[in-house]
Design brief:
There is one protein chain. The protein is an alpha/beta fold. It has a domain of about 230 residues: Rossmann fold (3-Layer(aba) Sandwich), CATH 3.40.50. The chain is about 40% helix and about 15% strand. The strands form four sheets. The chain has a seven-stranded parallel sheet, sandwiched between helices. Strands 7-10 form a two-stranded parallel ribbon. Bound molecules: NADP nicotinamide-adenine-dinucleotide phosphate (NAP) and ligand G4F. The site of ligand G4F has 24 residues, from helix 4 and helix 7.
């Protein structure tokens, strides 16, 4: 995939930026700060001394669970995380927040990120993921022009863009997306490449393969499985209904992957990178290992339900991340088995708390019960 051919403007602006910001904390703006990756990236950047600003959507219930532990009352001195309302469907708000924060780095992690749900709400998915990215980089283009200084931008691309392209997939593999989400991410990717080439913006596309954690949304397959393992182990649930057990994914740990996002933006020139472990496992493997971790036999509890199959499936994803290893010095730290262990441990703990509350006579419906079974 082409990288920019207008490199000299990055270098000049990078130099000017360095002089201005060398004695000030860097400012990062994270779109999608309340998501899995947003929370790990916030932790990572705060530990590096950044002032972090996050864009969050208005919701009728609190949606900041994943960053609550990082937030300090802004009335107190030294608050390093600031939250702003905004939305990728609202160009005016995006412009305003860019102007207000005047960031050194922007990370666009915002998305309707569920592949199966994208078949149910395709227009909205495209509006947020594809057009939302265009809105944001249009705002960025104007901001950079008016401020006359370099802003480094990360675009959250996905291995779903490869879709039906046979594994292993690298930066040179042509895209063949298989869902409205995958198509929208591919459009966002090409908008980003085009703006880099046309306007000399410092934009990197990360093409990240699946990455999970104890903070993973509960309707993605890994977390759906580990949540069920936790609840089954405590006698709170008996059955788990899943879709396609044969799909293969290259699963890594989200905490490792946010470092790669940051590393891309520290390079002299912007480029695109695949981030992956280079190991693929089937959903069936994940299920078997997760149940075994809790001493359970998965075949007694798991049933297949057609409603969790997708109209078009991505059968096999396996990333070739040699470029990231060579140029960024990045490699994953957490193995597949360690990842499962970490997620199962967390979800057994959550289930134990649920059980204790039940036993004390305060049983409430489980959070998200209306989505029972997930997607
Ligand atoms: P996630 O947990 O679903 O988080 C998505 C974030 O985007 C949330 O903060 C969400 O806000 C926000 N968001 C949703 N719609 C928005 C809108 N209209 N305007 C502004 N923000 C909006 O996803 P993730 O796993 O952290 O992934 C981060 C990014 O990487 C996403 O773009 C995803 O598509 C991409 N990606 C993820 C993976 C993976 O395996 N995790 C792999 C490749 C690429 P709420 O909290 O209010 O919902
Ligand atoms: O966990 P999943 O929903 O993740 P999927 O579709 O791979 O997408 C995730 O990774 C992408 C990167 O490749 C991201 F861009 C995207 O935002 C998201 O984070 O499904 C994984 C596999 C699929 O093949 C699915 O068909 O698991 C299979 N599966 C089987 N039963 C299930 C289920 N998936 C879900 N969500 N729920 C099931 O019951």
């Amino acid at each position: 995939m082409p990288s920019s051919d207008s490199g000299s403007s990055f270098l000049l602006m990078a130099h000017a930026n360095l002089m201005v910001t060398s004695c000030m904390a860097k400012r990062a703006l994270i779109i999608g700060v309340t998501g899995q990756d947003g929370s790990y990236l916030t932790e990572f950047l705060l530990a590096k001394g950044y002032d972090v600003h996050g864009l969050m959507r208005r919701a009728s219930l609190f949606n900041t669970d994943r960053v609550d532990h990082l937030y300090h009352d802004p009335h107190l001195a030294g608050a390093k995380l600031t939250l702003h309302y905004g939305d990728l469907t609202d160009g005016t708000a995006l412009r305003r927040v860019l102007h207000t924060v005047d960031p050194d780095e922007v990370y666009n992690l915002g998305a309707q990120s569920h592949v199966k749900v994208s078949f149910d709400i395709p227009e909205y998915t495209a509006e947020v993921v594809a057009v939302g990215t265009l809105r944001l980089i249009e705002a960025l283009r104007d901001h950079v022009m008016h401020r006359g200084r370099l802003v480094r931008y990360y675009q959250a691309g996905s291995s779903e863009m490869f879709g039906a392209a046979p594994p292993p997939q690298s930066e040179r593999t042509p895209f063949y997306p298989r869902s409205p989400y995958g198509v929208s991410k591919a459009a966002a990717h090409w908008f980003a490449v085009n703006y880099r080439e046309a306007y000399g913006l410092f934009i990197c596309n990360g093409i990240l393969f699946n990455h999970e954690s104890p903070r993973r949304g509960e309707t993605f397959v890994t977390r759906k499985v580990t949540r069920a393992v936790g609840r089954i182990s405590q006698g709170l649930q008996d059955k788990l209904y899943l879709g396609n057990l044969e799909a293969q994914r290259d699963w890594g740990y989200a905490g490792d992957y946010v470092e790669a996002m940051w590393l891309m933006l520290q390079r002299e020139r912007p480029d695109d990178y695949v981030i992956a472990t280079g190991e693929a496992h089937s959903v069936r493997d994940f299920v078997q290992l997760a149940f075994a971790e809790a001493g359970l036999d998965w075949q007694r509890h798991v049933a297949v339900d057609d409603r969790y199959f997708r109209p078009t499936e991505v059968d096999a994803l396996l990333g070739d991340a040699r470029k990231a290893r060579r140029l960024l010095g990045w490699q994953p730290q957490v193995t597949f088995v360690e990842l499962i262990r970490m997620m199962v441990a967390r979800d057994i703990d959550l289930a134990r708390r649920e059980l204790a509350v039940n036993q004390a006579g305060f049983a409430d419906p489980a959070r998200g019960a209306a989505l029972a079974g997930g997607d």
